[in-house]
Design a protein that fits this description.
single chain, 490 residues, transmembrane helix, transmembrane, ERG24_DHCR-like
C-alpha cells in the first residue's frame, strides 16, 4: 500500500513538535496579547500628573475607594469610551501616512535581504535615517517658532491615553490583516512570499501572535510597495520614541519654567540610540526579527506600542517631578552608558569582522571551534567571555535611562500647602516625594527589569536554535564558553 499523506493539521502538529511553542504557547500568547496593553494603561493612570506617582489611594489598598481612585488617576468621564478619540486616532494615522510618504519620496539605497528558503532574496528600500532627520528637522523648526507650546508637543501631552489607544488598535488591526493575508501565500510564488517556520502551529491565537508570514508586504496607491515588518521595525515606533520624549521635555518646561539636565540627558542618549539604528539600517536585515520571526501581534505591538510608550516612562515621570543630576551625576551615568555602548559596539564589530573576513589582523588571532556545518564559533576575545556579551552591554545601557529618576515617587499637593522640600509648579501646585518616595521605581525602573527578562528569553531561544543547528558541537562550545550573559554569574 502507498503511504498515507499527512493532513495539513497533522503536518502542522509535527512541525510544532519539532520547533516547540515559544512564549508559553497559546495561553502565553493570549496573556501577552491582552495583558501588556492593559499594563501600559495601568502605568499611564497609576503614575499621573493629577495626584502623583503612584496615585495616593494605591499606597493604601486596604482603604481604597474606587470613586476616589478614578478621580486621582483621571479616569475619563465617558468611561472606557474616553480611552480613545476620533481626533487622536486621525492624527495618529496621519503620522503613519506621513512616514510612508517620506519612505516613498526621500532618496534611498537599495539592499538585498538574506537568502530565503527559495534561494532568492528580497529587495529593500532603505531611508530610515533620512525619514527621521527630516521629521525631526520639521519639529525643531516648529519648536523654534512656537517654543514649548508647539501644537505637536501639547497635543501629545494632552492626549497621551487616546494616542496609546490608537496605536494599540493599529497593532491589533495590522496583526489581523497580515494573519488573514498569509493564507494567500502560494508555494514558489513570484512575489517571494514565504511562511515563517514558527508561525504554522495551526493554533489561531498563537499563529496570529507569533506571525504566519515571514515578510508580508503591501502596495499602497502613489507610495508603492512597503515591507511591513522592516517598515514598522524602524520607523513609526522608534521615531515616535524620540518624538514623545521631546513632548515630555516641552511639558516639563510648560509646568516648571525650566528644563533639567536629567530629562535632557535621557532624551539625547535615547535619540542617539534610535538614530544609530537608522544609520545602521542595513544591519537590521540580518536580525532574527527579519530573517526568522513571522510578523504578527508580537512584533506589531512591540514596534508600535511597547517601544514608544514603555521606553518613555522616565521622561514622562521627569516632566512632572524634575531631577537635577549635576556634574558628578552626569559624569557617572554618562560613563556607565559609554562603557556599555563600547562593549556592545566592540563585541558586535569583532563578530562581524570575523564572519566577513576571518583573516583580518584584528580577528586573525581569535580561537574558534569548527562545526560540522562549516560554521565557526568564537571561543576567545569578547565572545570567549560570555556567549552573549552583547546582551550584557544592552542591559547595562538600560540603567542610565532609569538612574536619573533616582528614588522615584511623588505626590501632588494643592497650591499653598507649602510642604517642606516641595517643588512648586507654575500653576501653584506642589510636588513632593512624601510617602510615595521609592514606589515610583515600579514605573521608572520597570524597563531595566523587563529588558533583563527579554534578554534571558532571547538567550534561551538562541540556545535552542543553535542546539538544533550545531548538535554536539554546540554542547562542546558551551563547555568552553560557560557563561551565557553575565560572566561568573549567569
Amino acid at each position: 500500500m502507498a503511504p498515507k499523506t499527512k493532513t495539513k493539521k497533522q503536518a502542522a502538529q509535527t512541525h510544532q513538535q519539532k520547533h516547540g511553542y515559544a512564549f508559553g504557547g497559546p495561553l502565553g500568547a493570549t496573556a501577552i496579547s491582552f495583558g501588556l496593553p492593559t499594563l501600559l494603561y495601568l502605568f499611564a493612570f497609576a503614575c499621573n500628573d493629577i495626584s502623583g506617582c503612584p496615585a495616593p489611594s494605591l499606597l493604601r489598598p486596604k482603604s481604597l475607594d474606587l470613586e476616589t481612585l478614578k478621580q486621582e488617576v483621571g479616569w475619563p468621564d465617558e468611561g472606557i469610551w474616553g480611552l480613545g478619540s476620533w481626533e487622536a486616532t486621525g492624527w495618529t494615522l496621519a503620522y503613519y501616512l506621513f512616514n510612508a510618504v517620506l519612505y516613498a519620496v526621500l532618496p534611498a539605497t537599495e539592499a538585498q535581504g538574506v537568502e530565503l528558503s527559495s534561494g532568492r532574496r528580497l529587495k529593500y528600500r532603505l531611508n530610515a535615517f533620512a525619514t527621521s532627520t527630516c521629521t525631526l528637522a520639521l519639529l525643531a523648526a516648529g519648536t523654534y517658532m512656537q517654543g514649548a507650546e508647539f501644537p505637536v508637543w501639547t497635543f501629545i501631552a494632552d492626549n497621551y491615553i487616546q494616542i496609546l489607544t490608537a496605536n494599540v488598535l493599529i497593532a491589533y488591526a495590522l496583526a489581523t490583516y497580515v494573519y488573514v493575508s498569509s493564507f494567500s501565500v502560494k508555494p514558489s510564488n513570484a512575489e517571494l512570499r514565504e511562511l515563517a517556520a514558527g508561525g504554522q502551529s495551526g493554533n489561531l491565537i498563537y499563529d496570529w501572535y507569533i506571525g504566519r508570514e515571514l515578510n508580508p508586504r503591501v502596495t499602497l496607491p502613489l507610495i508603492g510597495e512597503i515591507d511591513i515588518k522592516e517598515f514598522m521595525e524602524l520607523r513609526p515606533g522608534l521615531l515616535g520614541w524620540i518624538v514623545m520624549n521631546c513632548a515630555f521635555v516641552a511639558k516639563q518646561y510648560r509646568l516648571h519654567g525650566y528644563v533639567t539636565d536629567s530629562i535632557v540627558f535621557i532624551t539625547i542618549v535615547q535619540a542617539i540610540y534610535v538614530l544609530d539604528s537608522h544609520v545602521m539600517e542595513p544591519a537590521v536585515l540580518t536580525t532574527i526579527d527579519i530573517t526568522t520571526d513571522g510578523f504578527g501581534f508580537m512584533l506589531a505591538f512591540g514596534d508600535l506600542v511597547w517601544v514608544p510608550f514603555l521606553y518613555t516612562q522616565q521622561t514622562r515621570y521627569l516632566a512632572m517631578h524634575p531631577q537635577q543630576l549635576g556634574t558628578l551625576g552626569l559624569v557617572g551615568v554618562g560613563a556607565l552608558l559609554l562603557t556599555a555602548f563600547s562593549i556592545f559596539r566592540l563585541s558586535n564589530s569583532q563578530k562581524n569582522n570575523f564572519r566577513t573576513n576571518p583573516d583580518d589582523p584584528s580577528v586573525a588571532h581569535l580561537k574558534y571551534i569548527e562545526t560540522k556545518t562549516g560554521s565557526r564559533l568564537l571561543i576567545s576575545g569578547w565572545w570567549g567571555i560570555a556567549r552573549h556579551i552583547n546582551y550584557l552591554a544592552d542591559w547595562l545601557q538600560a540603567w542610565p535611562y532609569s538612574l536619573p529618576t533616582g528614588m522615584a515617587g511623588f505626590q501632588i499637593l494643592s497650591a499653598g500647602t507649602k510642604a517642606e522640600g516641595a517643588i512648586t509648579l507654575l500653576d501653584g501646585r506642589e510636588v513632593v516625594p512624601g510617602e510615595a518616595r521609592g514606589w515610583g521605581i515600579i514605573f521608572t525602573y520597570f524597563y531595566v527589569l523587563y529588558f533583563a527578562v527579554l534578554l534571558i528569553h532571547r538567550d534561551r531561544r538562541d540556545d535552542e536554535k543553535c542546539s538544533m543547528k550545531y548538535g554536539e558541537d554546540w554542547e562542546k562550545y558551551k563547555k568552553i564558553v560557560r557563561w551565557k550573559i553575565v560572566p561568573y554569574v549567569y
